[in-house]
Amino acid sequence: MNKIGAFLKKEFGSRVVKLPLDGGFTCPNRDGTKGIGGCLFCSSTGSGEFASNITESIKLFSDKWPDGSKYIAYFQSHTNTYAPVEQLESKFRATLSIKDPEIVGLAIATRPDCLTDEVYSLLERLNKETFMWVELGLQTIHDDTADFVNRCYKTDVYDEAVAALTSRGIRVVTHLILGLPKAAEGTGDAVSESREEMLASVEHVCKAPVFGIKLHMLNVVRGSTLAEICPNYVPFESIEQYVDLVVECVRKIPNNITIHRLNADTARPFLISPEWSMKKRTILNAIEKKLASMDAKQGDMVE
Ligand code: SF4
What we know:
By secondary structure, the chain is α/β, with parallel strands linked by helices. Helices cover 36% and strands 19% of the residues. The structure holds iron/sulfur cluster. Residues 27, 29-30, 38-39, 42, 46-47, 78-79, 111, 137 line the site of iron/sulfur cluster.
């Protein structure tokens, strides 16, 4: 598999660790600009349970990786292009100026509907100065699911953002969630997207010239609307069912696309379900083992 860890090691000649940061931004899907209450699955930390300010994050991660690793400043929490452009520039540049430990790049997570012309220009300038990618939280290409989870933008907005970023030479990483709920026909009850729908999302993303893809199962997390309205929602019956789906996803991802994640990364105190999503090593090993047993690999089902 073309994993981002190995890609970065080759690019920079040493281990590169992503430092999850909370840049102090907010989200237009919480403050009423785009929506209220946020996406159904998102906790009040804006999906940044591990993120902290730069000093704390460096301390935490340099203790974990004390061997002179290099770092990518990962603006993870909330929407990291949702602020005046001067403020964005000053925060991004402040992290890039850190020399000990060495920050070698930027990863900026955002919504595709929060990219103005001014933001594109800033990203284009930064991209010429440092290694960088923009991570877009798409989650699904199916607008009925997106409406159910209160994403508050349509998929064509994502397509336009990918075209605008890639035409400027900016790397795009797309984030998809497997097992999102949508309304069942007739009853309106929450049911998981079908396997075909999830695979269609992967194929759609991979048709564009994206740099990377990030997949993980839906987690029900404390502080999310999902935890309030469907606390017992279970998208996958078992690890095996999840692994089986991910293997097919991986086979549909072309080899030139880097894989950033195949399982969720929720901090234990925030996780309600599925409990097994904490078994990250077990899940990843099972994916590798299943691929090997089928003599299958990334990209071998690309049409
Ligand atoms: S997932 Fe992203 S866009 Fe949705 S509410 Fe959370 S921070 Fe906002």
